[in-house]
């Protein structure tokens, strides 16, 4: 039997109350459940306290803003109201205690771009070291055990349930993505971390956070709040915000493992040499130089690999063992993935660049591998940060020779309006070789048809995604598959 006291909610009245489940959604409450009535972005969860009580909630956890509604609903029933200043944090910790032990070693990574890549590389490194590992984030739970997820950082109840299930299935190591929404909503606060990483900080999600400061502060919650004091902070010092992150971590007395090209980095990238299938790296660890080879396209992937290596070392692995396995790392699905090659040699890459910085980084990353033109397909998602749209168009026009603007998950918005915002950004750079083709399949077909020997195509924005979200419908759509089919069709093979 689990009681409110067992969930860290002792000291409250009726702390011996038995709890049979936890949920954030009144509609999911079953008899004996703890209902987390949280302040939301649309409505306060306490608005649904009445429904939770009707469904048999044993307790309602809420804050001062939700107190009156919760007490009103509970009046005359056995439902206990538990009041706390930080209800989201309390709920995350309660969920951790309720669902039971997580895998013994957990690391998390935050930053605007690179979280999925870094966490996947951590899982691959651990796997090469014969450890039972998974990554958890945008692409679900992947590795020795897998599980689909709807969010990059799931709500705390799903997260703790999944972590406990992973542990029961033998998973000992987990690398997870900490999204800014997840950190802001304290979804990770019940997780015990050995190390946490910071990739970079550029524009995204201003629709939610409103200002750069609020977005940055949300991310810093990983280091100022979630990470325990004895854990290691692994920081990309090449990012303009890297030193700020380091100072924030120093103030908490965290051990810092700096990664980057500059001399302050303990894991220092000394040089990269690119060729058609990957790159040779020279790097140093605490003064000693190492050489390695990565079968990965794109200079930024070396930064992601260094950060992943730092996290795995920070979480206790032997550095030499880690460095030995780096040549075995493989492409992360939908991140600079070579989807197909035309008979004339022109390559088609699929990448998940969906921020201005990522569009620029991805296009610059393929430049050393291309002797001809770069054609870029770019679009922006609906119901997301609107201010990034022209900046994405601008980044595409500045870094590609031909730009095709197309749809990427318009969701509830008018697709032509989204495309127009991206188009304005591209047109601010130049007017030639900029095309606007709403239908994504047609855009890909047209782009593949343009490819001459020596050219390359980057299809940006959807990466691993397998659907195009139009309104509330999700239509099957997979950039890798569509691009491969277009190549086969235009080369006369189907
Ligand atoms: C903006 C945002 O992040 N919203 C998330 C948040 O909702 P909220 O608390 O703001 O919801 P609300 O609508 O105001 O409702 C308040 C509360 O009332 C409850 N409620 C509501 C209705 C009802 O009948 N009964 C009831 O109890 C809700 O469960 C909620 O707890 O908490 C909910 C439960 O955990 C999430 O499902 C929801 O994710 C929405 C669907 C979402 O789309 N989130 C995206 C933007 C997101 O989180 N993305 C990040 C970042 C991805 C990236 O890095 O690019 C991610 O980690 O995936
Ligand atoms: N270190 C990096 N620096 C800049 N851009 C990067 C870096 N790593 C990846 N990218 C770009 O960002 C895209 C998304 O990468 P990834 O999925 O790893 O990021 P993410 O942070 O998990 O994104 P999301 O916020 O959607 O979860 C890549 O396809 C690539 O274009
Ligand atoms: N995690 C990101 C993914 C964006 C991917 C892009 N294809 C889109 O739909 O905007 C977001 O939800 O903002
Ligand atoms: Mg991700």
Automatic annotation (TrEMBL):
This is UDP-N-acetylmuramoyl-L-alanyl-D-glutamate--2,6-diaminopimelate ligase. The modification N6-carboxylysine is found at residue 219. Belongs to the MurCDEF family. MurE subfamily. It is found in: Cytoplasm. One of its GO terms (molecular function) is ATP binding. UDP-N-acetyl-alpha-D-muramoyl-L-alanyl-D-glutamate binds at residues 24, 26, 152-153, 179, 185, 187. It catalyses: UDP-N-acetyl-alpha-D-muramoyl-L-alanyl-D-glutamate + meso-2,6-diaminopimelate + ATP = UDP-N-acetyl-alpha-D-muramoyl-L-alanyl-gamma-D-glutamyl-meso-2,6-diaminopimelate + ADP + phosphate + H(+). It holds the Pfam family Mur_ligase. Meso-2,6-diaminopimelate binds at residues 384, 408-411, 461, 465. Its EC number is 6.3.2.13. Its cofactor is Mg(2+). A motif (Meso-diaminopimelate recognition motif) lies at residues 408-411. Transmembrane segments: none annotated. Keywords: ATP-binding, Cell cycle, Cell division, Cell shape, Cell wall biogenesis/degradation, Cytoplasm, Ligase, Magnesium, Nucleotide-binding, Peptidoglycan synthesis. The keyword Transcription regulation does not apply. InterPro entries: Mur-like_cat_sf, Mur_ligase_C, Mur_ligase_C_dom_sf, Mur_ligase_cen, Mur_ligase_N, MurE/MurF_N, UDP-N-AcMur-Glu-dNH2Pim_ligase. Residues 18-98 form the Mur ligase N-terminal catalytic domain. Residues 109-311 form the Mur ligase central domain. ATP binds at residues 111-117. Carboxylation is probably crucial for Mg(2+) binding and, consequently, for the gamma-phosphate positioning of ATP. PANTHER family: MUR LIGASE FAMILY MEMBER, UDP-N-ACETYLMURAMOYL-L-ALANYL-D-GLUTAMATE--2,6-DIAMINOPIMELATE LIGASE MURE HOMOLOG, CHLOROPLASTIC. One of its GO terms (biological process) is peptidoglycan biosynthetic process. GO terms for cellular component: cytoplasm. Catalyzes the addition of meso-diaminopimelic acid to the nucleotide precursor UDP-N-acetylmuramoyl-L-alanyl-D-glutamate (UMAG) in the biosynthesis of bacterial cell-wall peptidoglycan. Residues 334-463 form the Mur ligase C-terminal domain.
């Amino acid at each position: 039997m689990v009681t409110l006291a067992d969930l860290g909610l002792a000291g409250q009245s009726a702390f011996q109350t038995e709890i049979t489940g936890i949920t954030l959604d009144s509609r999911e409450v079953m008899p004996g459940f703890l209902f987390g009535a949280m302040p939301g972005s649309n409505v306060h969860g306490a608005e649904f306290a009445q429904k939770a009580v009707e469904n048999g909630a044993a307790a309602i956890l809420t804050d001062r803003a939700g107190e009156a509604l919760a007490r009103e609903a509970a009046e005359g029933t056995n439902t206990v109201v538990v009041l706390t200043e930080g209800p989201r944090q309390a709920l995350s910790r309660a969920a951790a205690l309720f669902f039971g032990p997580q895998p013994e070693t957990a690391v998390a990574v935050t930053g605007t771009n690179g979280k999925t890549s870094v966490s996947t590389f951590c899982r691959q490194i651990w796997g090469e070291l014969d450890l039972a590992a998974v990554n958890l984030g945008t692409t679900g739970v992947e590795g020795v055990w897998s599980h689909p997820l709807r969010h990059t950082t799931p709500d705390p109840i799903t997260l703790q349930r999944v972590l406990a299930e992973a542990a029961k299935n033998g998973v000992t190591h987990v690398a997870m993505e900490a999204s800014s929404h997840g950190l802001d909503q304290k979804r990770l606060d019940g997780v015990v971390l050995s190390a946490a990483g910071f990739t970079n900080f550029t524009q995204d999600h201003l629709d939610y956070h409103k200002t750069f400061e609020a977005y940055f502060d949300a991310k810093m919650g990983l280091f100022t709040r979630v990470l325990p004091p004895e854990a290691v902070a692994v920081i990309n010092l090449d990012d303009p915000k890297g030193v700020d992150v380091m100072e924030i971590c120093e103030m908490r007395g965290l051990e810092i493992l700096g990664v980057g090209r500059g001399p302050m980095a303990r894991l220092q990238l000394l040089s990269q040499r690119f060729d058609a299938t990957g790159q040779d790296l020279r790097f140093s660890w605490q003064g000693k130089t190492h050489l390695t080879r990565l079968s990965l396209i794109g200079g930024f992937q070396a930064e992601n690999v260094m950060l992943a290596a730092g996290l795995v070392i920070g979480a206790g692995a032997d550095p030499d063992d880690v460095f030995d396995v780096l040549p075995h790392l493989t492409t992360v699905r939908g991140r600079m993935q070579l989807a197909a090659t035309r008979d004339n040699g022109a390559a088609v890459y699929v990448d998940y660049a969906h921020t201005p910085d990522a569009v620029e980084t991805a296009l610059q990353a393929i430049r050393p591998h291309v002797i001809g033109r770069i054609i870029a397909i770019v679009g922006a998602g609906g119901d997301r940060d609107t201010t990034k749209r022209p900046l994405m168009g601008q980044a595409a026009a500045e870094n590609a020779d031909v730009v095709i603007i197309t749809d990427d998950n318009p969701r509830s918005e008018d697709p032509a309006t989204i495309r127009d915002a991206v188009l304005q950004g591209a047109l601010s750079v130049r007017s030639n070789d900029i095309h606007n083709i709403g239908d994504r399949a047609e855009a890909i077909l047209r782009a593949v048809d343009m490819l001459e020997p020596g050219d390359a195509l980057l299809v940006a924005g959807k990466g691993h995604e397998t659907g195009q979200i139009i309104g509330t419908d999700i239509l099957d759509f997979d950039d890798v598959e569509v691009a491969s089919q277009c190549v086969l069709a235009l080369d006369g093979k189907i």
